[in-house]
Amino acid sequence: MPDELVISHLTAGYGHQSVLQDLSLRAEAGRLTALIGPNGHGKTTLLRAISGLIRPKSGEIRLGAERISGLGAETIVARGIVHVPQGDLLFPDMTVLENLRMGAFLPAAARQEKSVLEEVFTLLPKLRDRQSQIARTLSGGERRMVGIGRGLMASGRVLMLDEPSLGLAPIVIEQIYEVIAGLRRAGRSILLVEENAMRAAVIADQVHLLDHGTLAWSGTGAELSGRSELLETYLGV
Ligand SMILES: Nc1ncnc2c1ncn2[C@@H]1O[C@H](COP(=O)(O)OP(=O)(O)OP(=O)(O)O)[C@@H](O)[C@H]1O
């Protein structure tokens, strides 16, 4: 599959500390794959390793036929891996529209900026209404929507979302998850870090549970719902 992400025997971390240990997993093309696990056990680190922000110590990461581990972050984003990090990280003094346009910085994305912007506005209609508003005046949920919209503007092959619901009110989380469900229905390849296992179970095609930087369990979202002992052991749910 051209857009499948395959992680093989990956060891990665910071300085001498290895956070991920011999980790192997896949995120299939056209599917929503969720990473769950206790706080601090390596989910964000995995996204950083995939997007080239940290260099793996060993193992490899492939996108389709190409090995991307070892490439620089700019090259990896040009290959189509889009990383929407935790938090907002918008340009606070720019408008919504300017922030969205910043997502289309690669030449291939810039060429189709108009049509992709229309798609983003269809998916996130609130952003169309607020396109002239300065980012710092948006609500937390609206800012998160702009972050996702900006990621979509890159016209990537794989969209990685790191805890898109973090710190938001329940009703806003529902709105964000409706957007993610829409992306899933549209057949996008998505790798989602979600701290709430039950939310992941409902939305994901495939779920990987990370514990101490290793793979503790993999299965479908439906399978996870029936495995209460996993949730108790690893997540204290
Ligand atoms: N820049 C960094 N330098 C050194 N250690 C780091 C750095 N970033 C993260 N770590 C450490 O790596 C480990 C894994 O962190 P990571 O952010 O990947 O966890 P996580 O599973 O995404 O958790 P959370 O849901 O809390 O974000 C933690 O022990 C963390 O303290």
Task: Outline the structure in words.
With 237 residues, the protein is of the alpha/beta class. 39% of the residues lie in helices and 26% in strands. It contains 11 helices and 10 strands. The protein has helices spanning 43-50, 73-79, 96-102, 107-111, 113-123, 125-129, 140-153, 170-185, 197-203, 221-225, 228-235, and strands spanning 5-14, 17-27, 32-36, 58-63, 66-67, 81-84, 158-162, 189-193, 206-211, 214-220. The strands form 2 sheets. The chain has a 6-stranded mixed β-sheet, sandwiched between helices. A hairpin with a 2-residue loop joins β9 and β10 (214-220). α3 packs parallel to α7 (140-153). The termini are far apart. The mean pLDDT is 92. The protein binds adenosine-5'-triphosphate (ATP). Adenosine-5'-triphosphate is lined by residues 14, 19, 37, 39-45, 195.
Name the descriptors.
237 residues, globular, binds adenosine-5'-triphosphate, alpha/beta, six-stranded mixed β-sheet, 10 strands
In short:
The chain is α/β, with parallel strands linked by helices and 237 residues long. The chain is built from eleven helices and ten strands.
SSE blueprint and pairings:
Blueprint: E1 5-14, E2 17-27, E3 32-36, H1 43-50, E4 58-63, E5 66-67, H2 73-79, E6 81-84, H3 96-102, H4 107-111, H5 113-123, H6 125-129, H7 140-153, E7 158-162, H8 170-185, E8 189-193, H9 197-203, E9 206-211, E10 214-220, H10 221-225, H11 228-235
Parallel strand pairs: 3-8, 3-9, 6-7, 7-8
Antiparallel strand pairs: 1-2, 1-4, 4-5, 9-10
The structure holds adenosine-5'-triphosphate.
